[in-house]
Write a structure and sequence with these properties.
single chain; about 170 residues; alpha+beta; Arc Repressor Mutant, subunit A; 2 domains; two-stranded antiparallel ribbon; 9 helices; globular
Length: about 170
């Protein structure tokens, strides 16, 4: 089971898990926090710390810096890139400069949730017409090219990288 799935399962059981100074803080009902569960958490501690660190709320400056980092990444890409990369670059820039990026970052959507080639929303938007309606903590409401409502839920993107760092895409850019 993935670390994200473990977090979801334990949250539903009333367990709170936070990260502070490289340590996990676990609070919840003793009946749920058996030795087996605690051992499971120890086994995936590194992944949990990574997920929880990415979910740490940012202040306004932190949000602005994260969005700026996306735009800097777009500026570093070669001008003469393939049509797929050009489309990803355009959609990424539009998203970063539009009204939805702030809310997505504020609500803890990771770069992998948004930009990974396998399961990221922006890569999906490059494949088909999708338009933002609202951004929530666990889902993004969209309108598709047919005018129908869709919800985009978070995917298990642990260990994934944004498309502009993915060797499958970057190799095609050069």
């Amino acid at each position: 089971m993935s670390a994200a799935a473990v977090l979801t399962r334990l949250k539903a059981a009333g367990v709170s898990i936070t990260a502070a100074n490289g340590q996990l803080k676990v609070k919840g009902p003793k009946a749920v926090l058996s030795d087996d569960v605690l051992n499971e958490l120890r086994a995936i501690k590194g992944e949990l710390l990574q997920i929880l660190s990415a979910a740490t709320p940012l202040d306004l400056d932190g949000i602005a810096e994260r969005i700026s980092s996306w735009l800097r990444a777009m500026d570093r890409l070669p001008k003469a890139c393939g049509i797929e990369a050009h489309t990803l670059k355009t959609i990424t820039s539009d998203f970063a400069l539009g009204p939805w990026a702030y809310e997505a970052v504020r609500l803890g959507w990771s770069d992998a949730d948004l930009f990974t080639l396998d399961g990221g929303l922006i890569a999906e938007m490059a494949r088909r017409a999708l338009h933002f309606r609202s951004v929530g903590e666990d889902t993004i409401a969209l309108i598709n090219g047919r005018g129908a409502y869709e919800e985009w839920g978070r995917r298990d993107t642990a260990g994934a990288v944004p498309w502009w760092e993915d060797a499958r895409c970057v190799a095609r850019l050069h």
